[in-house]
Amino acid sequence: MKIFKTSTLVLALACSFSAPLLAQNKAETKKRPNIVIIISDDHAFQAISAYGNKYAKTTNIDRIAKEGVLFNKGYVTNSICGPSRAVILTGKYSHKNGFKDNENSHFDGSQDSFIKQLKGSGYSTAWIGKWHLESQPQGFDYWQILPGQGHYYNPDFQMMDGTKKRTEGYVSDIVEDVSENWLDNRDKDKPFCLVIGHKATHRTWIPDARDMGTFDNVIFPLPHNFYDDYKNREAAKVQDMSIAETMVMGYDLKVFKDDAAATMEGTIGRMNAAQRKKFDDYYLPIAADFKARNLKGKELTEWKYQRYMRDYLSTAVSLDRNIGRTLDYLDKNNLTENTIVIYMSDQGFYLGEHGWFDKRFIYEESFRTPMVMRYPGVIKPGTVSNDLVMNLDIAPTMLDAAGVAIPKDEQGKSMLPLFTDKNAKGRDAIYYHYYENGEHSVSPHFGIRTERYKLVRFYKRVNSWELYDLKKDPNEMNNLYGQKKYKKITDKLNLKMDQLINEYDDQDAKILKQNKFNFTKKEIGI
Ligand code: SGN
Ligand code: CA
Prior knowledge:
CATH topology of the largest domain: Alkaline Phosphatase, subunit A
Number of domains: 3
Distance between the termini: 59 Å
Structural class: alpha/beta
Strand order of the largest sheet: 7-6-5-4-8-1-9-10-2-11
Number of strands: 16
Shape: globular
Strand content: 5-15%
CATH architecture of the largest domain: 3-Layer(aba) Sandwich
Helix content: 25-40%
Radius of gyration: 23 Å
CATH superfamily of the largest domain: Alkaline Phosphatase, subunit A
Largest sheet: 10 strands, mixed
Number of helices: 18
Bound molecules: 2-deoxy-6-O-sulfo-2-(sulfoamino)-alpha-D-glucopyranose, calcium ion
């Protein structure tokens, strides 16, 4: 058992929501918990049955929620892949950990991370699967990662010894196989922290052959803002991530001109003959039917939407099945009682809301991420949390659970007091900053969300403000910014925004708020 120094407790006190003493004591009296963090890619909360999806049966994700907590208000600080993983590792915003966007950033692995802290305190650590941080992982006893986005079929892995290894099969199964293999062979005298990084459900959505067709009998209802006209919302007007315009018939929806065009696509071209046959058996009749229909306008867009939903949810079937395998492994090896399990995505995703796929915006569907967590003995089964929590909080929470002092410069807060201390209170506002200004043409922006309102400042591509009353307008269709009767509330939110910008020390936002900027055309992205 770890003996705590007073300084450890004082530090932890300073960094947690409030009264972390209880949690610390619990961690102290228990054996230090093992940790399994499962991070998927682009998996929307709207696609999960525990979050209300009527068609998907994500039994295993739901099981984690049932046996632990379902976070209804889990958010990310910057809704895109690499940045989100960098935030999870460091417990710091993008402007502090240096990984602001996927297009230009390179993660500086020499900086501190909760993994390094855990390893330093005696944990075995591993990251297996999607990583997407450009540089090699540091602080892990073992890692085996998908290069870049990775492939759904017969994926290559980058190995620790510098070699590349290709494994036949479907990526979600293989990532789980490698993870279980690492668990089998780990040093069993130590607690462990394993991060399982799934590729699913990233674009382009290619299901495991056995799951193809799972949703073919479902007609998915259109989200009621599917035909959004983007009125009064400049950034929404100029995005390039709509199902109607951006989603591609071949690449995304597997309706190819011919066989050769399909083979040209990386993921399809790398299938073996048996895999390709199953792929063709499923998709060729769909393509033939589509071609015979000669659809146009709304009919075409809605056909695309149905196909998108079917592929996306079918891809998630394997993800959920393999999460189930992780839970079964813990059960079979008597690890369940002393292991924290977290399932989350790197961000949310649009499933047709506003007419979109992809993410990036501070609007709820991409800002929010699914997040469920099981911690036997600490989190009461069936808990539903409505506290504002963030991916920023993962690092300090894990350190808190392990009884390791939370470094002062981590910007997140331990979530444990929310479960152990009746008087603990969550945040009253959360801060967001998105930087990338390239693919999908989403303008950079920063903003805050409180229980009721959201205030956003777009810059570079468009230069505008938005304000939403989430109580009256949960779908964020009615931009209230500039309306006289919202002046008072806007001023209040602005103050709160300044306070958070100061607290997190976001120098870029500070300058932007003072309107002291002069972007070049290239920076603006036109
Ligand atoms: C790829 C995708 C984009 C996606 C980004 C970021 N294009 O570039 O649609 O937004 O990844 O995704 S694709 O043609 O390569 O599929 S992230 O999850 O890595 O952030
Ligand atoms: Ca992602």
